[in-house]
Amino acid sequence: MQPRISMITLGVRELAASVKFYEEGLGFPRMDSPPEVAFFTLNGTWLGLYGRDALAEDATVSAEGSGFAAVSLAHNVPSEEEVDEVMNQALAAGATLVKQPQKVFWGGYSGYFKDPDGHLWEIAHNPHFWVGPVDEDN
């Protein structure tokens, strides 16, 4: 098996509001889809494995109860300035700031926001590696 995540599906409370957040607010390209679901094309996905308690601590949320669902999605960018730009775009679209972008212990720069349904997103610059756009042929 070639390791990959083909689709990440987020459960949302209000489909129309979430579609607006991701399509209009963040600029995700929407695909044709039935009215009860919305699909967006993304430029590949990454999977990170990190200790539950450590990830909650990094995001400054509780690892217990409704404060942390043990999952975060990450959007990595090539510079600290772009972290700030993407974070500002998400906040302008209606996201909630969880952790202001800042230098972090692993040598990068990152911050966290929650989408309208509380899904946790990390926006990060990792100076140790940058993959860039995914080659769709691989």
From TrEMBL:
Domain of life: Bacteria
SUPFAM superfamilies linked to this entry: Glyoxalase/Bleomycin resistance protein/Dihydroxybiphenyl dioxygenase
CDD domains from the UniProt entry: VOC_like
PROSITE patterns in alphabetical order: VOC
VOC domain ranges (all copies): 4-126
InterPro entries with a match to the protein in the record: Glyas_Bleomycin-R_OHBP_Dase, Glyas_Fos-R_dOase_dom, VOC_core
Protein name: Glyoxalase
